[in-house]
């Protein structure tokens, strides 16, 4: 696309710029970004659109740089109301769950604002907190915890911010909140339902005895599923709880044995931490056969494309033909894999 439109002379000049800057890795991709910028200019793109594109790109760079040193540290994002006061039991719950996950070696990502965001950052402590704040017309700056070690990046747009709040995390905890929190929660559900994001644990956490999420659950079960606008199992993957311990187990336990997945054509490869036994694979087939569009769940060596990408080659693998829309089923299968006797212990 872009490659074909720009003149060869301009492409040569861009190549010279990249040589001078010493950019060699992933050069085609960097080239494409520069070409797109030139083409946006050539197109006479509207000034506001140019501002959006340029701010998005430079803020993404800032955010990637903030996150890059922590690539190998597991991260959980905590969402929740910006309005929760420090004496509120929900504030304490958010602080406690963040502290418990930090004690297990997790970093806690938040929107860097007040309320639940501040509580979670405090619970994790400055060293294990990352904040992605938003510049709002009427809001104060990022909370003190994420500011302390400059673990914060400020974004102009919600869409780039949401990308960073979601992209690097291996678990999500939503505490009660308003439009912002619900928007973030539904974004998570949509990304997973459509397969745009890999499966990750999602916990809706309340204060002890709290019933905030039960209305949503009722709405999903009594209205959304019967109307046919979601599949009945789509919400099963979400844990609703008022217990910090349960929330932590749901997040860490999701990754006990399951490590990652990859679609190769219509085959789904599950990468595990421990190799399952023949008897365990037989039992998985017995239990999950109805999720398969054909064939059986089988042990496999890395597939050709995985080998050429050097994609987690050391891990044991299972391969299956999963019914495309069975996202709830995939979560149940991951849960079963994590519960195998051969799975690593905590
Ligand atoms: P709400 O539930 O409407 O209070 O919105 C909270 C969610 O929206 C948080 O998880 C944030 O990501 C975002 N948000 C809303 N207000 C702010 C704020 N003042 N600072 C940072 N993030 C905010």
Overall description:
This protein is an alpha/beta fold. The protein folds into three domains: 67 residues, no CATH class; 184 residues, Rossmann fold, CATH 3.40.50; 81 residues. The protein is 46% helix and 17% strand. The protein has 14 helices and eleven strands. Strands 4-3-2-1-5-6-7 form a seven-stranded parallel sheet, with helices on both faces. A four-stranded antiparallel sheet has the order 8-9-11-10, with helices on one face. Strand 3, helix 7 and strand 4 form a beta-alpha-beta unit. Helix 2 packs across helix 3 and helix 5 runs parallel beside helix 6. The structure holds adenosine monophosphate (AMP). Adenosine monophosphate binds next to strand 3 and helix 9.
- Low-confidence stretches are none
CATH architecture of the largest domain: 3-Layer(aba) Sandwich
What name is given to the CATH topology of the largest domain?
Rossmann fold
Q: Structural class, from secondary structure content?
A: alpha/beta
Tally the structural domains: 3
DSSP helix count? Answer: 14
Helix content: 40-55%
Sheet with the most strands, sense and barrel status:
7 strands, parallel
The neighbouring-strand order within the major sheet is 4-3-2-1-5-6-7
SSE pattern, N- to C-terminal:
HHHHEHEHEHEHEHEHEHEEHEHEH
Quote the beta fraction. 15-25%
Number of strands: 11
Specify the overall morphology.
Answer: globular
CATH class of the largest domain, named Alpha Beta
Average pLDDT, rounded to a whole number, is 93
Small molecules bound in the structure, each named once: adenosine monophosphate
Taking the alpha carbons of the first and last residues, their distance comes to 49 Å
Query: How much is the radius of gyration in Å?
Result: 22 Å
